[in-house]
């Protein structure tokens, strides 16, 4: 990676819909070079995917929260990765991370209301064998 790749990636992080031609105009790098560099960035796995950022209020999920999970490994035989995959399969889950510190897993969720948040944490997460405790932090504002 060099400065040209960094410029291309910076523009794509702002708007992944940009075409090679638009990136070329903004960076003053020839379009063929842009095309080849994008291809290389995808092939090497630097660009994993292109995504969409939603307005969560408009799609009916205005409440976001982080749920920290402490795992008790004396119960159940599943690994942290298996647990994370199981949790990630739920539609309210945006991200699942295995972390260090007082908790083992951190989950970012988006829900329509506090009842849905309560249902996810109390009726789903806390019922999974091996989850010792949870701590939920509701996100007040995202920048």
Summarize the structure.
With 143 residues, the chain is of the alpha+beta class. The chain has helices spanning 3-14, 20-27, 31-43, 80-88, 114-124, and strands at residues 63-71, 93-98, 105-111, 131-138.
Describe the model.
The structure is a single chain. A hairpin with a 6-residue loop joins β2 and β3. The chain has a 4-stranded antiparallel sheet. The chain has helices at residues 3-14, 20-27, 31-43, 80-88, 114-124, and strands at 63-71, 93-98, 105-111, 131-138. The longest helix is centred in the N-terminal third of the chain and has 13 residues, at 31-43. It is built from 5 helices and 4 strands, in the order αααβαββαβ. α2 (20-27) crosses α3. By secondary structure, the chain is an alpha+beta fold.
Class from helix and strand fractions: alpha+beta
Largest sheet: 4 strands, antiparallel
Distance between the terminal alpha carbons, to the nearest Å?
Answer: 28 Å
Mean pLDDT: 94
Supply Rg.
20 Å
Annotation field: number of helices: 5
- Unreliable stretches covering 5 or more consecutive residues: none
Based on CA inertia axes, which overall geometry fits? elongated
Strand order of the main beta sheet, please?
A: 2-3-1-4
Strand tally is 4
**Which percent band covers the strand fraction?**
15-25%
- Provide the succession of SSEs: HHHEHEEHE
Percentage of residues in helical conformation? 25-40%
């Amino acid at each position: 990676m060099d400065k040209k790749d960094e410029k291309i990636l910076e523009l794509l992080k702002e708007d992944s819909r940009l075409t090679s031609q638009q990136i070329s105009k903004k960076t003053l790098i020839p379009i063929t070079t842009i095309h080849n560099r994008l291809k290389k960035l995808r092939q090497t796995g630097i660009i994993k995917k292109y995504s969409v950022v939603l307005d969560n209020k408009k799609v009916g999920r205005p409440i976001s929260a982080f749920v920290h999970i402490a795992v008790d490994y004396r119960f159940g035989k599943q690994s942290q990765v298996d647990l994370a995959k199981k949790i990630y399969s739920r539609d309210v889950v945006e991200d699942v991370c295995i972390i260090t510190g007082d908790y083992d897993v951190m989950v970012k969720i988006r829900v329509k209301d506090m009842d849905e948040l309560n249902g996810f944490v109390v009726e789903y997460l806390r019922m999974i064998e091996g989850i010792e405790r949870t701590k939920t932090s509701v996100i007040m504002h995202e920048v």
